[in-house]
Design a protein that fits this description.
The complex is a heterodimer of chains A (1192) and B (336). Chain A has 1192 residues and is α/β, with parallel strands linked by helices. Chain A has 44 helices and 38 strands. Chain B has one domain (7-319): Alpha-Beta Barrel (TIM Barrel), CATH 3.20.20. In chain B, 37% of the residues lie in helices and 15% in strands. In chain B, the strands form 3 sheets. Chain B has an 8-stranded parallel beta barrel with strand order 3-4-6-7-8-9-12-13, surrounded by 7 helices. Chain B has a two-stranded antiparallel sheet with strand order 1-2. A two-stranded antiparallel sheet of chain B has the order 10-11. In chain B, helix 6 links the parallel strand 8 (171-175) and strand 9 (196-199). Chain B starts with 6 loop residues before the first strand and ends in a 32-residue tail after the last helix. The chains are: A alpha/beta (1192), B alpha/beta (336). Chains A and B meet through helix 2, helix 17, helix 23 and helix 43 of A and helix 2 of B.
């Protein structure tokens, strides 16, 4: 039978089968499994049916725990049910997994296996998540490639139905989930042949139904629980045979034969490596080369991991084996070895004790860890493991792919040993996230896969920053199956799609001798050479590289594509690679453009076609001179004179050389220094804002709204200008805040992302030429040198004395040093201005609990952090626990702080005779509600420290260990709406009810931003989002009102762009309140489908329509029997529809489904009107505090 | 006896000279029904803007690509993909087809193209959708100091000729008044293939916001004063060009309609008045026209059409004067 050949990634391969074979799909986004849920949702939304011609119901839940619960219920009620998850998400499902397995319920959880957070979070792939569920009773089936992700998905569904045992089907996150490869798709007939209708009927017959009621989920006692637990044994025991049956059926249908364990290599192998997952590809390549060189080696691939079928394992293991190297992609500290290792050892020992061992004696087994968090795993490492296994005295436990210079567990591998086949073409493409390089390369893989008999593979590596991020695409294609599951090291084709990258990245380091190099250059065939770095020139000459340039920028601009140069470069790639005849390639590219973009409209097609047609004429070969003449060098990763850790470690990571860092370089517990973003001079802006002091009105709005703390204001003594560099501007202050001072607005030219939010908010316009404002975006290159000097001088100007400033005013707040700077958030981010403001107001005494999400990524994703310190070394101390527990995490911090300060007072009382009663009373009774109060307390602490250090007694040392706790701390619990409204709401609620002094800042983007825009309960009615593509039908949850119901929680809803003073005031009030505070901050996001430069205008309109009401509820006002609820926004002046048409999240619906948009917009307007009516009444309500706290 | 209000425009027999011109009221089929029920003798649909289609389509594309491929956790972008985005002209074409199917009155499609290819292609598709006639809504704001009036005029003519060649349904051309030689231009447009002229287009006129110092796009509803411009040119062109004449801009009341008919208009088109008073205003205007005709003993609209065109008035120069001329020999009293 002819099956469709498709080019898809692992997620799509698995999700395709899951959607075909399910009726209910409960989901929750988590990287890298999110795409499976998104696809399932999109397919159902588009009416795609399952095998039985029903459209599966896809429901997004509030957490993976919720998804597991919903799955459990759906299974109980008889639906064929599935879900997709990874990492922490899978861990949240564990309680239900025990139940589901205990009840012998058929289901499949598809897992794109990902690292579980330990000392750090990682979104990348390993088996630490799946290994954490191996005890639940689920069967576990591993896929090693994209093709297998589809095939094993089908086997898992089929076998689960036949055995009643639920399955985890897993494949490696990113390496398989995101690898694009050519596979043969299973047809409906194939799936129908594999799924036993009787098993489906039996599953349904077990459903809870009042027509034939049952009781399931009882509580049992010591008398019977144990026996009942053992009653399911036959079902688990039957799994291996049934899985093999399903695999055999698949083989009969498709010819692809799998076994529970597969062995490849020499039949008389003496050394065998055992592993599962994507590493199998690299192992197969290694074995291929080694056996061809006469080595007696092999690889044993594990497919069914649970139940572990010892007999099947022994059956494939060559009898000649003398030693085994078992590789685990996980780490289990304290265990005798990692799980697969232990299983293999146990199997061998059991077999030996039973007399069923196929060889004479138990082979030696060594166990190694590899590939944690998608660490590269190459054939050379497989060879290293096999070499070790062959030694007389091997390391029993070892690691691969790193240099462990602490416990010396790592095995060295030969970097030069590879299995690169001459038949496979390897190509590397360097681009930027915004230029479409990845998309074009995905299409190229499809074109090659679908237009030629060749196999093709694409894998894409991204940056750790959300703005200005580099992408590297790794493409392989060739005649045979491509097994290489690792990055390309020696490329025969290299393309750099952005000229700017040539200064930052050594793009030719991985180019082979004689490789072709394509550079997107605006300087033409004659002007480009001299602009390259010396090192690049040298590599081109030494490696005899064929060098081509194309001015993709111009071709794209002429075609009306702006900066999207992808189709131009793609066309040039095909022209140079010669995979297809020129005409055929052009046609294929156009066809793929039509497929990808066709539904977006004819214009998109015609412009891209024009770019394709204009490309070849613009492609030129460069005549390479005989010598390198350039004096340019690659930009250093960090400036001179940085702290030791930054120089040794951080700079290596920034430079893309983190893989080379040894174990000894790393902190042992995940603790890193803050204030490091300042050393990562990314210089990604094309344009930066330049100040015109003549026009400025000193309103301080630009520094307030800057998402990156890259434009700042300082007020200072004019005498300091004596040393100012030439061209450093200043102006007289306006108003009474800073008498006698002058001020300067200064850009950080290398840290600015060029978002333009500051210029858009600037209210001051030239009288002569309105387009000229007090700050203006200008081409960076013309100003870079000057502004670098200016910024350096600016930073050295003294900071304002915090005790002299009204810090709760807009201007006052902006005179303070931001302790959150240069984050890698998206350019123009709507969240970071709030975070930065909080850091200005309280940063020097601030402790942050940060929910997982965008803010934990731009706040804590290596290499650097934007959290900074002041001149005294004080600054926010920051940590991220999980997504779901952040409120509790922060509350714990508050409990500790309160406990420690109480203990400190007691310890100080114990040393009262040493420090004196005045100092003791001063510390205990300190007023710490003002900057002066804090400063005075710090003075007392310094005095006491000095006295106690001199005294040196044990009780003095005890008091010293607690001393800093007497300085008032500001606890900030931050996160997005996904945390606050959904997954973390239970905890948030509990923390509000605790009455403790914590500040919760909800950066409300109204979608899950970090995972790419899925709907949350903060998503408003009528907005489209992933998982709500028809426009969300239900209204936004009113979190503020829920909080307000407590009566003793300070609640504010703010929108910086609509009212900056209200924002500053609410944050200050919240912090000063000695109980729980909740601030919900309107945070525009790319996911809204807006130009982020205009985000403040969108905020203004959101408030003007009444869509985002601003208010403050202050329980202190209730205490004085006043009106605690202040409705800060005015009567709406604009209809919702006018606002909605300016944001694609709403406006898209008016195009895709205008009638539905009308209905939803009308309902959204009603929501707004009614809420306004309600809030207006609330504003008139008098309310007292809830009953007094009687706990003490 | 009843007055006969029938008129002929672009060869279409209409019950009255009251046509609803292109306006937001005609965006939906419900709106079109309301106009027809209120007595519009024909409807001109709001313009299909080729530029808007292009802009929309590319904007959808750009929006879907926002933030995509920039970070591994949101590599697929932020907005869900849809099966279709309706960025093309299909929605408009469907409206034309449906209006023709459901309304008893003629449906005139209106088109504003951006490229010659676009004008021709969309004209063909609108004809295929069943439009009773096509109105080309043509304007170029010629801002290029190198662009001559000759070149601009030629562009108009080429365009009309190209569309004329493509379609068989009646073709009207709606233009602005800013031609150096309006009368000659009108003649050349008809020679190029226009069956009717719609006088005049009102441009989107930017305003300045004094507090924000921003240029704000602005469309003000017309006032009755504005009908003087089409009044003059219809009077001048009546009988001099071989085309139907439609008056648009400033048509608010029965009196306005009557004046334009006297000047020579075949139909009068209302937009601002209907936006202000609602579609039912057409009936009020019709009654006023009927009453006046009856009280002044006219038998039909046809009878009065053009009876005060420039050629038909005793003082043709009155339509030509651009300034008040003092005269020694004619006695007149200022209009107080």
């Amino acid at each position: 039978m002819d099956r469709p050949i498709v080019t898809v990634d692992g997620n799509e391969a698995a999700a395709y089968v899951a959607h075909k074979l399910s009726e209910v799909i409960a989901i929750y986004p988590i990287t890298p499994s999110t795409a499976m849920g998104e696809m399932a949702d999109a397919w159902s939304a588009a009416g795609r049916t399952n095998l039985w011609r029903n459209i599966p119901t896809v429901m997004e839940m509030q957490s993976e725990g919720g998804a597991a619960g919903a799955c459990h219920g759906a299974i109980q009620a008889g639906a064929l049910t599935t879900t997709f998850t990874a990492s922490q998400g899978l861990l949240l499902m564990i309680p239900n997994m025990y139940k589901i397995a205990g009840e012998l319920s058929s289901t499949v959880i598809h897992v794109s296996a990902r690292t579980v957070a330990t000392h750090a979070l990682s979104i990348f792939g390993d088996h630490s998540d799946v290994m954490a569920v191996r005890q639940t009773g689920f069967a576990m089936l591993a896929s090693a490639s994209v093709q297998e992700a589809q095939d094993m998905a089908a086997v898992a569904h089929a076998a689960s139905l036949r055995t009643r045992v639920p399955f985890v089907h897993f494949f490696d996150g990113f390496r398989t989930s995101s690898e694009v490869a050519k596979i043969e798709r299973l047809t409906d007939d194939d799936l129908r042949a594999m799924i036993d209708p009787e098993a489906v009927a039996a599953h349904r017959a077990r459903a809870m139904d009042p027509e034939h009621p049952v009781l399931r989920g009882t509580a049992q006692n010591p008398d019977v629980f144990f026996q009942a637990r053992e009653a399911s044994n036959p079902f688990h025991a039957a799994v291996p045979a049934k899985v093999q049956e399903s695999m055999d059926e698949l083989a009969d249908l498709t010819g692809r034969r799998y076994r529970l364990f597969d062995y490849y290599g020499a039949p008389d192998a003496e050394r065998v490596v055992v592993l599962m997952g994507s590493g199998v590809g690299a192992a197969l390549e290694a074995i291929g080369r080694l056996t061809s060189e006469g080595e007696k080696v092999g690889v044993l691939v594990v497919r069914l991991y649970r139940p572990f079928a010892t007999e099947a394992f022994m059956a494939v293991l060559p009898k000649t084996v003398k030693s085994l190297a078992v590789l685990d992609r996980t780490k289990e500290p304290g265990a005798l070895g990692e799980p697969l290792y232990q299983d293999v050892v146990t199997s061998l020992v059991e077999a030996a004790s039973q007399g069923t061992l196929p060889m004479e004696s138990i082979p030696r087994v060594i166990g190694g860890r590899y590939g944690l968090s998608s660490k590269e795993f190459t054939p050379a490492m497989v060879k290293a493991a096999l070499d070790e296994a062959g030694k007389d005295d091997p390391k029993l436990h070892f690691t691969l792919g790193i240099v462990d210079d602490v416990t010396h567990l790592s095995l060295a591998h030969d970097e030069e040993w590879d299995t690169d086949s001459a038949k496979v073409v390897r190509a590397l493409f360097f681009g930027l996230g915004s230029d479409g390089t990845v998309g074009a390369n995905k299409n190229s893989v499809k074109i090659i896969g679908e237009h030629t008999p060749m196999h093709a593979q694409g894998y894409f590596v991204y940056d750790s920053k959300k703005s200005g991020a580099m992408t590297v695409s790794h493409l392989r294609f060739g005649d045979g199956e491509i097994l290489s599951t690792y990055l390309i090291d020696k490329a025969s084709f290299v393309a750099c799609h952005q000229f700017g990258l040539m200064e930052k990245v050594d793009v030719l380091s991985r180019a082979k001798k004689g490789a072709k190099f394509l550079l997107n250059s605006p300087y033409g065939k004659d002007g480009t050479w001299d602009r390259l770095t010396r090192d690049t020139q040298k590599q081109i000459i030494d490696k005899q590289i064929e060098f081509y340039v194309v001015d993709g920028y111009q071709v794209a601009a002429e075609a009306g594509l702006g900066g999207r140069i992808n189709t131009v470069l793609q066309t040039c790639f095909f022209a140079l690679a010669g995979i297809l005849p020129a005409d055929e390639a052009v046609e294929a590219i156009k066809e793929s453009i039509r497929k990808t973009y066709g539904k977006r409209g004819e214009t998109v097609l015609t412009r891209n076609f024009a770019a394709v047609d204009g490309s070849i004429a613009a492609l030129h070969r460069v005549d390479v001179p005989a010598e390198a003449t350039s004096t340019k060098r690659l930009r250093p990763a960090v400036p001179d004179q940085v702290p030791d850790f930054v120089e040794r470690v951080t700079s290596m990571i920034i430079d893309g050389k983190g893989d080379l860092l040894p174990v000894s370089a790393m902190p042992v517990d995940g603790t890193f220094p803050t204030a490091t973003a300042q050393y990562e001079k990314r210089s990604i802006a094309m344009e930066i804002p330049i100040w015109d002091s003549e026009i400025c009105i000193d309103c301080a709005r630009c520094p307030l709204v800057c998402p990156h703390a890259a434009i700042r204001v300082k007020y200072y003594d004019p005498a300091l200008l004596a040393d100012a560099p030439e061209g450093f501007q200043h102006a007289e202050t306006r108003g009474k805040d800073f008498p006698g001072k002058v001020f300067t607005i200064q850009v950080a030219p290398d840290d600015c992302t060029g978002c333009g939010v500051c210029v858009n908010i600037c209210p001051a316009k030239s009288k002569e030429e309105v387009k000229h404002k007090a700050i203006n975006m200008v081409g960076k290159d013309d100003y870079l040198d000057r502004e670098r000097v200016n910024y350096s001088f600016f930073l050295d100007l003294p900071e304002v004395d915090r005790t002299t400033v009204n810090v709760t005013s807009l201007k006052g707040s902006q005179s303070l040093l931001p302790l959150f700077e240069y984050s890698g958030a998206c350019s123009g981010c709507g969240e970071t201005p709030y975070v930065k403001l909080v850091s200005q107001l309280f940063g020097d005494r601030m402790i942050v609990a940060n929910a997982t999400g965008c803010s934990s990524i731009y706040g804590g994703n290596l290499p650097t952090t934007p959290w900074a310190v002041d001149a005294d070394g004080r600054g926010p101390t920051w940590s991220n626990s999980l997504f779901e527990d952040n409120a509790e995490f922060g509350l714990g911090m508050r409990l500790a702080i309160d406990q420690r300060s109480q203990a400190a007072f007691e310890a100080l009382a114990d040393v009262a005779d040493v420090i004196g009663d005045d100092l003791l009373l001063g510390v205990v009774n300190a007023e710490q509600t003002s900057e002066q109060g804090i400063k005075d307390q710090r003075g007392r602490v310094a005095e006491i420290r000095s006295i106690l250090e001199k005294e040196g007694s044990p009780r003095a040392r005890w008091a010293l260990s607690l001393l800093d706790s007497v300085i008032r701390k500001s606890v900030w619990i931050m996160g997005g709406d996904g945390w606050a409204y959904d997954i973390g709401f239970g905890g948030l609620d509990h923390v509000m009810a605790s009455g403790r002094d914590v500040n919760m800042l909800v950066l409300d983007t109204e979608v899950y931003s970090n995972t790419g825009g899925q709907a949350s309960k903060a998503t408003p009615r009528a907005a489209i989002a992933k998982f709500a593509s028809g426009g969300k039908v239900t209204g936004k949850k009113d979190l503020g009102m829920i909080a307000m119901a407590y009566g003793n929680v300070y609640v504010a809803q703010i929108a910086m762009g609509a009212n900056m003073s209200q924002t500053v005031r609410a944050i200050a009030e919240a912090e000063s309140y000695r109980g729980p505070s909740l601030i919900i901050a309107y945070s525009p996001c790319i996911a809204h489908g807006i130009d982020m430069a205009d985000q403040m205008d969108h905020q203004k309109d959101a408030v003007a329509t009444g869509y985002w009401p601003m208010y403050r509820f202050d329980p202190r006002m209730a205490a004085s029997e006043e009106h605690p609820f202040a409705l800060d926004s005015r009567e709406p002046t604009m209809p919702f529809a006018d606002f909605a048409k300016t944001e694609a999240r709403f406006a898209m619906l008016t195009r895709t489904n205008p009638e539905r948009a009308d209905r939803l917009f009308a309902a959204a307007q009603e929501d707004i009107t009614e809420r306004r009516r309600w809030y207006e009444q609330l504003a008139g309500v008098e309310r007292g505090l809830p009953g007094e706290d009687v706990s003490s | 006896m009843t007055v006969n209000l029938k008129t002929t425009y672009l060869g279409l027999e209409l019950d009255t000279p009251l046509v609803a011109s292109a306006s937001p009221l005609g965006r939906t089929i419900e709106g079109l029904h309301r106009l027809a029920n209120a007595g519009a003798s024909a409807v001109v649909l709001p313009s299909l803007f080729e530029e808007q289609i292009e802009y929309d389509s590319y904007q959808v594309h750009e929006t879907l690509e926002l933030g995509a491929e920039s970070f591994p956790e949101h590599a697929t972008g932020f907005l869900p993909e849809f099966e279709a985005y309706n960025t093309g002209p299909e929605h408009y074409i469907d409206l034309v087809a449906r209006a023709r199917e459901e309304l008893a009155i003629p449906v005139i499609a209106s088109l504003n193209g951006a490229t010659t290819g676009g004008w021709v292609e969309y004209a063909r598709r609108l004809e295929a959708a069943g439009a009773s006639a096509l109105e080309l809504n043509v304007y170029f704001i010629a801002t290029d100091v190198e662009d001559t009036s000759t070149a601009v005029e030629q562009r108009y003519l080429d365009l009309v000729a190209a569309v004329r060649e493509t379609i068989d349904i009646p073709l009207a051309v709606k233009v602005g008044p800013y031609f150096s030689a309006m009368a000659n231009m009108a003649r050349r447009l008809t020679e190029a293939g226009a069956d009717g002229l719609v006088l005049f287009n009102r441009f989107y006129q930017p305003d300045i916001h004094l507090e924000d110092l921003e240029v704000v796009p602005n469309v003000q509803l017309s006032t009755p004063m504005e009908l003087r411009l089409p009044l003059r040119w219809i009077a001048i062109l009546k009988g001099r060009v071989n085309a139907s004449l439609a008056a648009t801009t400033g048509v608010h009341s029965g009196e306005d309609v009557l004046k334009l008919l006297l000047a020579g208009a075949d139909v009068t088109m209302m937009c601002s008045a209907l936006l202000r008073h609602g579609p039912e205003w057409i009936r009020t205007v019709e009654e006023a026209v009927r009453e006046w005709l009856e009280s002044h003993e006219y038998q039909s609209v046809e009878q009065m059409k053009g009876s005060m065109s420039q050629a038909s008035v005793p003082d043709p120069a009155a339509f030509e004067r651009s300034n008040y001329m003092e005269s020694l020999i004619t006695y007149s009293t200022p209009n107080v």
